[in-house]
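User: Need the bound-state model for guanosine-5'-monophosphate:
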Amino acid sequence: MRTGNLFVISGPSGAGKGTLVARLLEEVPDTWISVSATTRKPRNGEVDGKHYYFMSRQQFQKLAQDDELLEWAEYSGNLYGTPRKSVEDHMAEGKQVILEIDVQGGFQIREKLPEAHLVFIEPPSLDELERRLVNRGTEDAQAIERRLSAAKMELSRKDEYDFVLVNDDLDVAVQQLAAYVNEQAEMTK
Ligand code: 5GP
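Assistant: Bound-state model below.
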């Protein structure tokens, strides 16, 4: 069994983080993905407790006040946060714990847990990012604009991450991410 490690995966909405992380699970068997709390409304097909814990602002604020969130941030008008206990439990079990969170959350994690590994997923270009967001069809035009402006802010901070990965060819990106996770996990064995 390997020692538990914490990995933050950030990058603009539409960079393909979700798909990459799902594939990472298949490649690296001892990974575990944290399920965040959010005040965002579920998209079609999203399941409570699987994709997110969907809740009201009031419920979210109670969690934050009770110090049950390891980090939290407002992104594009909604609140998102990482439940503390399940992350701590899975790390203690020796899992490679993955947090798919925005850069504000990533830097909070680095403050609290400097040994965390911060990975930034970069889209091939902003044009490609916009194309992916439009094709995904989950957001209206205004929400896409907000997400593109959030993307520019996030991209401006990528150099502060430990590892930057361009998600151009998905298969290549999965292999690069898996190699990075395995390398870091082996180092702390
Ligand atoms: P989406 O609404 O597209 O699911 O997520 C929007 C953004 O919120 C993404 O960048 C995603 O990584 C981020 N996010 C999801 N969960 C969390 C969380 O627990 N904390 C923080 N800080 N960001 C999160």
